Amino acid sequence: MEKKNKKIAKFLTAKIFKIIEELSTESNIEVYVIGGFVRDKFLLREEKKDIDIVVKGSGIEFARQLAKKVGVKKVSVFKTYGTAMFKYDDTEIEFVGARKESYQVDSRNPIVEEGSIEDDQKRRDFTINALAISLNKNTYGQLSDPFNGLEDLKNRLIRTPLNPDITFSDDPLRMLRAIRFASQLDFKIDDDCFNAIKKNKERIKIITAERIHTELNKIILSPTPSIGFKLLFDSGLLEIIFPELYDLAGISTQNSISHKDNFMHTIQVLDNISHKTDDLWLRWAALLHDIAKPRTKRFVEGTGWTFYSHNYVGEKMIPEIFAKFKLPLNEKMKFVQKIVGLHMRPIALVEEDVTDSAIRRLLVEAGDDIDDLLTLCEADITSKNEKKVCQYLQNFENIRKRIIEVEERDSLRNFQPPISGDEIMNYFKLKPCKQVGEIKNAIKEAILEGEIPNNKEKAWEYMIKIGKEITVPSTGSGTVNSSSSGTVNSGSSGTVNSSSSGTVNSGSSGTVNSSSSGTKLK
User: Fold this and answer.
1) Alpha-carbon distances, residue 407 vs 367, 379, 401, 420, 454 (angstroms)
2) What pLDDT sits at residue 108?
3) Largest Cα–Cα distance in the chain?
4) What tens digit of pLDDT does each residue of 33-53 get?
């Protein structure tokens, strides 16, 4: 046992542990490190930046004494929960007094009373999180494991210390936490626990949206998110908390023609993209990329199953989904919308001869998010035909090369037309009107089609040229650009015949007769 304790004591490398031992001895208070820190040490996971300390007595008072001892001035106290926290050497240390808990049926917030260290371990959500290591002088480094949590770690098993039916009914958030830990650690949920989750699934309705999205985010960020989403589906929780995603499941058949199970496809795409990026919001885009397929599903004779415009419908669904989960409704949501809305564009390019014009348009619409968009599109290839997958991936690689070529030549990422609306109005002496937009759009189209290069000089020449072809309404007296003599200052030599009905602005040599019905920009 002593040899084992020494081995476990090696986990306690942070200098704060020895200081806690000193304070424990001075104050004659029983103290343990417990929870995720201990669990992850046994799993040889990355060093955690937070430590949970349980104290027999007042966790708040112990935290204050320790903070004074190590020279920390700020201690955050949460009297409602009997906890305190401070930061030391880039690590957040949380202190709680050992306690017993009981619950009321309509709340997950416990009624708390003082208890022993063993009582505190009983209230922990899972056996693997009830492991505790002594920080007391006489037993320093000794493991306290009353529920065989170490054995569950070895067997990769999620299990509750007490009756799972009571555990999940008391605090329904623990159902999501069980699934999240299974996804993060690639563990199995004990059969009795999983059956208890199914039985108590309706209790999830008392959990706030913020708590739910926190667990969903952690599942999405896990190494293989599909583990968590399959468990959410099989437990019945997904149908309650995320019906839009649940509705993707299933296969419809008509005239012996079936479509794929879009739920299984979606979580495979999420797994695929998780091998490429840790970006939470790009992973959300993967999860939601086909979210509108149930709403757009149609069977067309001679064609089969179609999901026309599911990307655009899905883009419009995202604000409602984000609002429901209390996710940020800022640029993060707009990024997810943008990727979902555009995700069919590169796929279409793969299936046809790609023109420079098509590449330019994709660059302009995607901007700096072009790489993320292509990453999703590559993840979206879930065919079981390896040859087909290799061909598609090669096609996407070719598109990436073409994008680099066009971008280097035309500088179109985050494209803005080189001529502004103000410049158009100033040159043609116009007030704000739809014709200004028409001219600006015509310049943009000419650049995207490769008719002119993306620079101001050529765009200016093109603006003057198309001014001849666009009719603008008369304003005031009907004069667009007049002088007292009726002669127009043009971009080159040229005069304009004016009449009482109006005068025309010339951008090149030539003469135009104006009429009361409108004025030509020339």
Assistant:
1) 11, 23, 10, 22, 11
2) 60
3) 108
4) 999 999 999 999 877 789 999
Q: Is the dihedral angle over the CA atoms 232, 237, 241, 247 positive or is it negative?
A: positive
- Mean pLDDT in residue range 480-491: 36
Token readout for 284 is 């959300």
Which amino acid, 165? D
d(CA 43, CA 388): 39
Non-local CB neighbours of 132 within 8 Å, separated by 6+ positions: 32, 33, 34, 38, 54, 117, 121, 143, 144, 145
pLDDT class of 492 with cuts at 50, 70, 90:
very low
Residue 354 backbone phi and psi in degrees, to 5: -90, 125
Distance CA 67, CA 89 (A): 12
Nearest Cα neighbor of 484 from 469, 498, 467 is: 498
Distance, in Å, from the CA atom of 491 to the CA atom of 427, rounded to the nearest integer, reads 9
Buried b (16+ CB within 10 A) or exposed e, 489-510: ebbeebbbebeeebbbbbbeee
State pLDDT tens for residues 68-118: 999 999 999 998 778 999 999 889 999 999 987 666 666 666 666 788 999
